[in-house]
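Quick illustration, no need to memorize.
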Amino acid sequence: MARQARKKSRSRVYHIIVRGANRQEIFHDQEDRIKFLDTMQKVKTKSGLKIYSWCLMGNHVHLLLKEGMESISVVMKRIGVTYANYYNWKYKTTGHLFQDRFKSENVETVNYLLTVTRYIHQNPVKAGIVLKPHDWKWSSCLGYYGESVYPPTLLDTDYLLNMFSTNQSIAQERFREFNERANQDKCLEDHGDSRRRLTDDEARLEIKKRLGKLEIPQVKSLPKEERDRLLRRVKEIEGVSQQQAARILGVAVHFLYKVR
């Protein structure tokens, strides 16, 4: 069955989620996140895109974008292909990094634009990673609070801040109060994301169950075929990231990426 075409937003503003294939992690260190943000900056410059907010999580990204000279599909393809090429080169792997099709929803009212921005900024809070939105370095939150974000010209804050006040300091204060307000916002919900991430101790116990009589330190010395068979079983454990599993097992993380 042919895919249904995306419905065009009358405002040309979209909330987008980009997710790793099979929910795999797409960022493993600071360099990866910086590369993704640099890629967004280059695409923004080329396409005339407006970027109202973002949040980089472990295996997915939230973006709030307004189309410029290029369609949102072209923009997301540019970002995805560029970053995937970097990722596959760095980690010496092949295959799809992202799910085949990014998810999107149209944002066509001012109220919903603000709601989506808050939802994006509170993503790390609701995931239990940080206590406050501004504690997460890899979102646009700090830019709205008057602090620097990277890259410096990536974020477009004026449109949203002017909704709170034409005085910048007052607007930032009012935005912060709104942004940190307790809420039940549900935007482009993906209920598969509700899985809790296991602690290392919990993950270690689950991994041991998959290994049978083998001890964790023995895995990295196994013949490739046997090792890969065990790694496939480890990858099926809900709540354990591939980077976390590699750290516990003492194997190179690209071993897990290559196992299908």
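Strands lie at 13-19, 50-56, 60-66, 103-106.
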